[in-house]
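Good morning N.,

You mentioned wanting to compare the apo and holo forms, so I went ahead and generated the holo version with flavin-adenine dinucleotide. This is what I fed in:
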Amino acid sequence: MSESNVEKVVIIGSGPAGWTAAIYAARANLAPLCVVGVPRSDPAPVLPGGQLMLTTEVENYPGFPDGIQGPEMMQKFREQAERFGTRISEADVVKCDFSKRPFKLELSEGAPVLAHSVILSTGATANWIGLKNELRLAMSGGGVSACAVCDGALPAYRNQPIAVVGGGDSAMEEASYLLKFASHVHMIIRRDSLRASKVMQARLLGNPKVTMHWFTVVADVLGEEKIEALLLEDVRTKERRNLPVKGLFLAIGHSPATKFLQGTNVELDEKGYVKLHNRDSRTNIEGVFAAGDIADAHYRQAITAAGMGCAAALDCERWLATQGVH
Ligand SMILES: Cc1cc2nc3c(=O)[nH]c(=O)nc-3n(C[C@H](O)[C@H](O)[C@H](O)COP(=O)(O)OP(=O)(O)OC[C@H]3O[C@@H](n4cnc5c(N)ncnc54)[C@H](O)[C@@H]3O)c2cc1C
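and this is what came out, ligand included:
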């Protein structure tokens, strides 16, 4: 295949990290190809545009003093990337060969793509329980979320009872954060103990504003336009009861979207996130960069993902220049 058929840079993923990388790469005349992903619902919902497609009001992204709807914001990111010449492939990358250059990417639709460099920005999917009403109310702004830092401060949750599902450190962190706003926090825990560290547990256990619901799972989320209650089930007796709440926050982990990297030598950490070299955007494979939640289990915010997308495009452009690709 001739050199002209080799992309200078392919960006995989179309969340804040991918689109920001695309804006920078396009403005640097690299004519990036962005493989935006296809809608999926199993095991968790994933849409082109990323995790912000599953939320309504975004209040913490700078530049939008009145807030903006997540899907509208991602449409604006996309338009900005397209304005500077980003090309789009409506597909998933299903397989990568990084063993030799140019790299080869197999897509769910269409011919394989060859690339001098690649930016991985496929994010990490929040885990949901998988209930129909849970996702319906999450996507309609009905009081269900998978991100307390993102949504906890919204007016709907202020001085209201809310519930958090999960028993690990991140659930404790989310609950501690929500205590700033909520009148009461109900922790829904499947077992009789927490997986969280003792330090994290100490923040919540014994707090009069916190109730632990041990051996309990959420069987359904009740409410038409807004959440009104949870249908809880005792896992031992199968007894069911209603718990009135105005918010439900899922804190049952994230799954980094790295399946398409199976069979490559891209180094992942113990949780499955892409390892970055020296805290910049380089992976262990020369010419392969990563940005956003796929490489960040710590912050997981749109603004940090966008910042990492910018860094990856700048690092990538500089590396391409050393390879004589402009
Ligand atoms: C309910 C909820 C509400 C949130 N609210 C806020 C908020 O208010 N403010 C905030 O700052 N953050 C918020 N966040 C967090 C924020 O959404 C993420 O931090 C951010 O979207 C991460 O961006 P990203 O580009 O790394 O990945 P993502 O946004 O996850 O985007 C990943 C992209 O990769 C694509 N993709 C996946 N696999 C493939 C593949 N194999 N091939 C091609 N494409 C693929 C997907 O389709 C998607 O387009 C929220 C998260 C959730 C779950």
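Residues 128-250 form a domain with the FAD/NAD(P)-binding domain fold (CATH 3.50.50.60).

Happy to go through it together on a call whenever suits you.

Best,
F.
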